[in-house]
Amino acid sequence: MSLPEQVRIVEVGPRDGLQNEKQRVDTDTKVELIARLGKAGLKAIEATSFVSPKWVPQMADNAEVMARIVRLPGVAYPVLTPNLKGFEAALAAGAEEVAVFAAASESFSQKNINCSIAESLQRFEPLMAAAGAAGVRVRGYVSCVLGCPYEGAIEPAAVADVAATLAQMGCYEISLGDTIGTGTPGKTRRMIEAVAARVPVERLAGHYHDTYGMAIANIAASLEAGVAVFDASISGLGGCPYAKGASGNVATEEVVYLMRGMGIDTGIDLAELIACSLWISERLGRAPGSRVTRALSSR
Ligand code: HMG
Ligand code: MG
């Protein structure tokens, strides 16, 4: 399969990145982070999540974030919603796109959203209907597609089943999450092929966490399998509160650098992105999590 000329990057740092941050991150910082990401050219920035604040306190200022972000033309600001309650709150806060999330592993589904995979999919039905009525686009996530912190290996067929159900329910795109980052390129490719047999590859996205340093290799394998959308997090921020030891998503800077090297357009300004990475790292009081940013900013 020939490589795509363009790749779309979905920035998930403000949500997937910050949701796991132990220190309190103030709303000003979140709003400015989203503005800086927009300035760097990102066209999809996952802004926050409308989940229970008891479960994920860091996202408790979701409505305020949505009220304060300055929306750039042509940029989508999706938010994560686990159920109808979250969807209604997101809609009231002005969200125009949401994302639902299910898992390919039963144990992870229980730990993350306190219900079985089948129950989670059922919960999405009223949400999908309400989203359809409101003209809100819905993206779907599948977690633990290459391994589960509780169950170990996950069968590609299990991933394909959940992805196909989300696609049938009306999700315009399915993001395949290696939540704990245990995937390697061969496994990634087999998983993508199994899912692509049920959902057109044009509707798939790769969401790779970099816990074992494999995310870039998994992105390269996914590109070869026809995937042209990747989720990434500025400075590699993040982890998952329900996956102990999981590190952040692949750093956005790393993905842009890779694509640039392969002659694939992302529409993103790497210098602006690096400036944004340095800024958020300083705000959080740590060194940038991206090797590309460290290398290019130390020259
Ligand atoms: P539950 O306790 O089973 O739900 O939680 P419940 O319906 O029994 O409700 C319990 C309480 O939560 C009630 O309040 C509800 O009103 C409230 P109380 O009566 O106790 O005061 N509630 C809500 N509040 C705000 N927003 C809502 C909402 N829903 C119920 N939407 C629930 C179920 C799903 C809510 C909970 O388990 C939850 O919020 N989990 C958070 C999960 C999460 O955010 N995980 C991280 C994101 S997923 C991820 O990172 C993976 C991904 O990046 C892909 C990858 O890497 O693989 C996407
Ligand atoms: Mg994630």
Features:
9 strands; alpha/beta; globular; binds 3-hydroxy-3-methylglutaryl-coenzyme A; TIM Barrel; single chain; binds magnesium ion; 299 residues; 43% helix
CATH architecture: Alpha-Beta Barrel
Task: Give the fraction of residues assigned to helices.
Answer: 40-55%
Write the element-wise H/E pattern from the N-terminal end onward: EHHEEHEHEHHEHEHEHEHHH
So what's the CATH class?
A: Alpha Beta
Major sheet description: 9 strands, parallel
Query: What is the H level of CATH, i.e. the homologous superfamily?
Result: Aldolase class I
Total strand segments: 9
Total domains: 1
Task: Quote the beta fraction.
Answer: 5-15%
How would the global form be characterised? Answer: globular
CATH topology: TIM Barrel
Lateral arrangement of strands in the main beta sheet:
2-1-9-8-7-6-5-4-3
Low-confidence stretches: none
Category by helix and strand content: alpha/beta
Radius of gyration, CA atoms, in whole angstroms = 17 Å
The number of helical elements comes to: 12
Mean pLDDT, to the nearest integer, reads 96
Give an overview in words.
- Helix 10 packs antiparallel against helix 11.
- By secondary structure, the protein is an alpha/beta fold.
- The chain has helices at 13-17, 27-39, 62-68, 84-92, 106-113, 117-134, 156-169, 185-196, 215-224, 252-261, 270-284, 291-297; strands spanning 8-11, 44-45, 48-49, 79-80, 97-103, 137-143, 173-178, 204-208, 229-232.
- It has a single domain, classed as TIM Barrel, CATH 3.20.20.
- 43% of the residues lie in helices and 13% in strands.
- The protein has twelve helices and nine strands.
- The structure holds 3-hydroxy-3-methylglutaryl-coenzyme A and magnesium ion.
- The site of 3-hydroxy-3-methylglutaryl-coenzyme A has 25 residues, from helix 4, helix 5 and strand 6.
